[in-house]
């Protein structure tokens, strides 16, 4: 594994700097650089996202890649995240890309500060070292159409504690692709201990095929589940709504919210959608313990309050049956909004219950079914 890592670094350093064909500004004001592929594999109207300068790579913040780009009167579609496109971009936070992207090429996000991204449904190949040493990456999904995950693709992603793979047939893989980190002992004559990602979730019907493949060499456990669907809504600086699809096999859901690797709150919800328990693992930020659930025919909805503004979180929704065996899994990530400019972060008095909300760009406190401004004046 160590040899693979060194070879990748040598390969990336030795390759000549790639020129881009043109650039466009995304909706967040970030400049994105493109190379026209123009080959039979991807189509003559296909683009790869690339970089302007590798050292330093100036991609930063939240990048939004459009489905298509107009250039010299022609329409081009983005289908590839090119070799080293975001390599070493330490200030990169998230990337949103078209579902039509089919390949992450070698080193595409390596050594960057990326924390979250959408995983395109059309993705087929994750190239060598694509996310190598992405030490801030929070969440990994392998979409259903992926057939190959190349060496060191997720090497050194220390915050990744589980992976969801939706492919019915185990993609091609080698040992060490998902190594999270290395422990070194007996210096100056070191012994290297490589740590796998703890858990891989796969479709229940495919679990044995994964356990009989090289995927088992990359994970401590492989668990077959029914995959759910979830989404986040109504994100504010202090709260979020998590909505997930129910499953008839589940007797109890456990929902955990994480900041980096640390769980901050956990909920239990029964099969009828009623919250049966909650536990906070970190001090309450604003002392606002007014979390709640609602239910519909197909979805349960959890409102989570008391979050920190401008912060990345991950969540897991796990379901167990009447025998307490795991049968359901869903996970995702979100980022809370920043407080509006010029607004100081409000806080309630110790022990005082309430909920922070945003309305028309202003921050209010909801308490006793009445809405107050930060100065305590009733506005309803």
CATH superfamily of the largest domain: Ribonuclease Inhibitor
- Segments where pLDDT lies below 50 for 5+ residues? 6-18, 283-290, 368-380
The CATH class assignment of the largest domain is: Alpha Beta
Shape: globular
**CATH-level-2 architecture of the largest domain:** Alpha-Beta Horseshoe
Radius of gyration: 23 Å
Number of helices: 2
Sheet with the most strands, sense and barrel status: 9 strands, mixed
Number of domains: 2
Q: Considering DSSP H and I runs of 4 or more, what fraction of the residues is helical?
A: under 10%
Span of the ends, CA to CA? 63 Å
Oligomer designation: single chain
Q: Tell me what portion of residues adopts beta-strand conformation.
A: 35-45%
CATH topology of the largest domain: Leucine-rich repeat, LRR (right-handed beta-alpha superhelix)
Mean pLDDT: 82
Overall description:
This protein is mainly beta. The chain folds into two domains: 2-224, Leucine-rich repeat, LRR (right-handed beta-alpha superhelix) (Alpha-Beta Horseshoe), CATH 3.80.10; 230-335, Immunoglobulin-like (Sandwich). The chain is built from two helices and 29 strands. The chain has helices at 2-14, 207-211; strands at residues 22-25, 31-36, 46-50, 61-64, 68-71, 74-81, 92-96, 103-104, 116-117, 125-126, 140-142, 148-149, 162-165, 181-185, 191-195, 197-203, 219-227, 230-233, 240-245, 252-259, 262-270, 275-280, 292-295, 299-304, 312-320, 326-335, 355-359, 362-367, 370-372. The strands form six sheets. A nine-stranded mixed sheet has the order 11-13-16-17-26-25-20-21-22. A hairpin with a 2-residue loop joins strand 27 (355-359) and strand 28. Residues 6-18, 283-290 and 368-380 have low confidence and may be disordered.
């Amino acid at each position: 594994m160590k040899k693979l890592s060194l070879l990748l670094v040598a390969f990336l350093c030795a390759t000549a700097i790639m020129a881009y064909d043109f650039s466009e500004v995304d909706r967040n004001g970030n400049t994105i650089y493109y190379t026209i592929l123009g080959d039979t594999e991807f189509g003559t109207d296909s683009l790869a996202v690339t970089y302007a300068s590798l050292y330093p790579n100036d991609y930063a913040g939240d990048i939004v890649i459009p489905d298509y780009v107009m250039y010299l009167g022609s329409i081009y579609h983005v289908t590839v995240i090119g070799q080293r496109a975001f390599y070493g971009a330490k200030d990169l936070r998230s990337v949103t890309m078209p579902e039509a992207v089919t390949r992450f090429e070698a080193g595409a996000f390596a050594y960057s500060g990326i924390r979250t991204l959408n995983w395109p449904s059309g993705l087929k190949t994750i190239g060598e070292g694509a996310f190598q040493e992405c030490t801030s990456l929070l969440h990994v999904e392998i979409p259903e159409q992926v057939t190959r995950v190349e060496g060191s693709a997720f090497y050194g992603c220390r915050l990744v504690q589980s992976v969801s793979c939706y492919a019915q047939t185990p993609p091609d893989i080698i040992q060490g692709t998902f190594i999270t980190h290395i422990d070194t002992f007996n210096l100056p004559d070191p012994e290297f201990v490589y740590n796998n990602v703890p858990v891989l979730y796969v479709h229940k019907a495919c679990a044995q095929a994964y356990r009989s493949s090289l995927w088992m060499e990359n994970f401590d456990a492989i668990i077959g589940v029914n995959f759910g669907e979830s989404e986040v809504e109504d994100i504010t600086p202090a709260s979020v709504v998590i909505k997930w699809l129910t499953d008839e096999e589940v007797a109890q859901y456990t929902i955990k919210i994480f900041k980096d690797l640390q769980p901050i709150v956990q909920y239990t919800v029964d099969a009828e959608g009623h919250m049966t328990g909650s536990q906070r693992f970190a001090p309450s930020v604003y002392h606002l313990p007014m979390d709640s659930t609602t239910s519909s025919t197909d979805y349960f909805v959890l409102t989570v309050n008391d979050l920190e503004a401008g912060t990345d979180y991950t969540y897991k929704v796990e379901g167990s049956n009447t025998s307490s065996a795991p049968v359901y899994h869903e996970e995702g990530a979100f980022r809370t909004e920043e407080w509006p400019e010029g607004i100081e972060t409000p806080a309630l008095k110790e022990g005082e219950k309430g909920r922070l909300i945003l309305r028309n760009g202003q921050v209010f406190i909801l308490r006793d079914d009445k809405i107050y401004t930060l100065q305590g004046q009733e506005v309803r």
